[in-house]
C-alpha cells in the first residue's frame, strides 16, 4: 500500500512538473514573438507585369526577332536609364546566333517587392544527339523587371555581361567605391 501511495505521489509530482513546463513554454513563446518586418505586398498585377515583360523578350528570341528582343533591354549606369550599348547588343546577337532559343520554360521567379522581380528561364538551343540523350542542350537566362524613375524596365539580371573595355560594370563600380574610400581615408588622415 505504501508503495502504491509513493508511486501515486511521484506520478502526481511529475504531472504537475510537466504541466508547468508546458505552460511556461507556451508563455515564453507568446512573450518572445519575433518582430519581423511586414512582407512586401505583391499584387497579381505586379506578378503578371513581370511575367509578361520577360515572356515578351523570350518569345521574340524564340521567333528569331533578336533585334526586337534586345531593344526591350535596358541598363542603369550612373543613375540613368539607357538602352544597351551597340557593343553589348552585338555580343548578345552573336550569343543568340550560336545558341538560338528553340524552346523555353520558366524555372524560378523571385520578387524582392512590388518594384523588383527576377525571372529565370531555361532554354533549349538544340536537340540532343540521338546517340547521347543526356547531352547538355540548355542554358539559363535571368531577367530583371525593375521600377526605376517612374516606369518598369526589363534588364539582364547578371550585369557582368555589360562591359566597357576590359572591365565589367561590377568591376568598375568596385573600383570607384575603393577610390572613394581611399579619398575619404586620405582626408581623415589629413593628407
What do you see in this structure?
By secondary structure, this protein is of the alpha+beta class. The chain has five helices and eight strands. It has helices at 2-31, 44-62, 66-71, 86-98, 169-189; strands spanning 74-75, 82-83, 103-113, 116-124, 138-148, 151-156, 163-164, 167-168. The strands form three sheets. It has a four-stranded antiparallel sheet with strand order 3-4-5-6, covered by helices on one side. It has a two-stranded antiparallel ribbon with strand order 1-2. It is extended.
Question: Key terms for this structure?
Answer:
about 190 residues, 8 strands, four-stranded antiparallel β-sheet, alpha+beta
**Measured on Cα atoms, how large is the radius of gyration?**
29 Å
| Number of E-state strands | 8
Strand content: 15-25%
Low-confidence stretches: 159-168
Portion of residues within helices: 40-55%
Task: Look at the structure and give the mean pLDDT.
Answer: 78
Strand order of the largest sheet: 3-4-5-6
Order of helices and strands: HHHEEHEEEEEEH
Main β sheet profile: 4 strands, antiparallel
The geometry reads as: extended
Roughly how many Å apart are the termini? 92 Å
**Count of helical stretches:** 5
Oligomer: single chain
* Alpha-beta classification: alpha+beta
Summed up:
By secondary structure, the chain is α+β, with helices and mostly antiparallel strands. It has helices spanning 2-31, 44-62, 66-71, 86-98, 169-189; strands spanning 74-75, 82-83, 103-113, 116-124, 138-148, 151-156, 163-164, 167-168.
Task: Set down the secondary structure blueprint.
Elements: H1 2-31, H2 44-62, H3 66-71, E1 74-75, E2 82-83, H4 86-98, E3 103-113, E4 116-124, E5 138-148, E6 151-156, E7 163-164, E8 167-168, H5 169-189
Antiparallel strand pairs: 1-2, 3-4, 4-5, 5-6, 7-8
Amino acid at each position: 500500500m505504501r508503495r502504491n501511495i509513493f508511486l501515486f505521489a511521484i506520478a502526481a509530482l511529475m504531472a504537475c512538473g510537466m504541466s508547468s513546463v508546458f505552460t511556461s513554454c507556451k508563455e515564453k513563446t507568446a512573450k518572445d514573438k519575433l518582430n519581423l518586418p511586414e512582407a512586401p505586398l505583391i499584387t497579381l498585377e505586379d506578378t503578371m507585369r513581370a511575367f509578361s515583360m520577360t515572356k515578351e523578350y523570350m518569345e521574340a528570341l524564340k521567333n528569331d526577332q533578336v533585334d526586337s528582343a534586345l531593344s526591350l533591354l535596358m541598363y542603369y549606369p550612373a543613375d540613368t536609364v539607357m538602352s544597351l550599348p551597340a557593343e553589348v547588343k552585338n555580343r548578345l546577337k552573336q550569343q543568340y546566333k550560336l545558341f538560338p532559343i528553340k524552346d523555353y520554360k520558366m524555372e524560378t521567379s523571385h520578387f524582392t517587392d512590388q518594384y523588383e522581380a527576377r525571372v529565370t528561364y531555361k532554354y533549349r538551343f538544340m536537340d540532343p544527339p540521338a546517340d547521347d540523350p543526356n547531352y547538355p542542350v540548355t542554358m539559363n537566362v535571368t531577367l530583371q523587371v525593375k521600377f526605376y524613375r517612374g516606369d518598369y524596365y526589363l534588364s539582364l539580371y547578371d550585369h557582368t555581361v555589360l562591359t566597357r573595355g576590359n572591365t565589367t560594370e561590377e568591376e568598375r563600380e568596385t573600383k570607384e567605391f575603393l577610390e572613394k574610400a581611399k579619398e575619404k581615408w586620405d582626408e581623415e588622415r589629413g593628407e
